[in-house]
Amino acid sequence: MEPVTHQQKNEAIAGFPFEGILVSENPYGSGHINDTFLLVFDLGDDEEVKVILQRMNKDVFADPEALMENIVGVTSYLRKKIEENGGDPDRETLNVIPAGDGKSYYKDSQGDYWRAYKFITDATSYDKVEKPEDFYQSAVAFGNFQCLLADYPAHELHETIKDFHNTKARFQAFKKAVEEDVMGRAASVKKEIDFVLQHEDVADYLCDLLEKKEIPLRVTHNDTKLNNIMIDDKTGKGICVIDLDTVMPGLAIHDFGDSIRFGASTAAEDEQDLSKVSCSMELFELYTRGFIEGCAGKLTDREIELLPMGAKTMTFECGMRFLTDYLQGDTYFKIHREGHNLDRCRTQFKLVEDMENKWYTMNEIVKKLKDN
């Protein structure tokens, strides 16, 4: 997408009925997809109000109107549940500010879509785990997200990115990329290709269980990283799940698994020294405890038993996607060096192997926490 111009931003600001006098507007956050700004308005009498304004990336999200329909549906439902539980709906869920025409978005003269949220004060989102407690708090928050939305009709949500965690479909896309070999890279990564082909059962497993209705379709977040949780500055507790662009129908086990893939790894996602890469059982146990606690009995016994499989599946899927992109010429994931996607793929596959070596331990941890 073209960079946001000052004129375009001013048009967007005028498209919303914000109160007060605008005193500052600055880029905000570390997200790579949407353009995000923090606006501060002076209300007089030493009072101010903060607002988040975002231009949605229509290259990534082809149907911003459907996306906003999802977000309004889910946040309105969360607000009602939080009020019923005696919580603070202004801080515990995102609150969409409607545009001047009452819609949940503003479409500017360039055809770009904008949205606005109330800013959540006295809370911070962290890009990396600074202390284990933060990882635990994110687990409780993502579990609570599942708990609050357990009765939401997931099938009514739009799929904002088609087949996002359809591992079966990802496997077929991978095989096609190997076959076409547009960059002539397949011969040099035979070991990695063989690893994927040997794990076809992992690609099929959870998809097959969903098809057989052995596990339920749920509202899922699909980007369960620590920085999508707001942690209260005073209490240190996770209070709000943010970045709801990829909220769609899916598996709770996938949400759990993506957190483990990213947060319980002992190395960076693109670590080149694979001897540093492993899945920490301490962090796995910490997150599992928090997630089960947050879900508060809303997951089925079968879903809880399958949590290790969720971790393995999501790690495998991610590695397979990095390898697919490498074979196709690095067109999806941004790279910062030659072979970057290959390094990323290798860390994921090393994590999968490590999980397989610790499979008994992972399952025993889940069994112990489930029975407590």
UniProtKB/TrEMBL annotation:
<feature type="domain" description="Aminoglycoside phosphotransferase">
    <location>
        <begin position="109"/>
        <end position="269"/>
    </location>
</feature>
<dbReference type="InterPro" id="IPR050249">
    <property type="entry name" value="Pseudomonas-type_ThrB"/>
</dbReference>
<dbReference type="InterPro" id="IPR011009">
    <property type="entry name" value="Kinase-like_dom_sf"/>
</dbReference>
<dbReference type="InterPro" id="IPR002575">
    <property type="entry name" value="Aminoglycoside_PTrfase"/>
</dbReference>
<dbReference type="Pfam" id="PF01636">
    <property type="entry name" value="APH"/>
</dbReference>
<protein>
    <submittedName>
        <fullName>Aminoglycoside phosphotransferase family protein</fullName>
    </submittedName>
</protein>
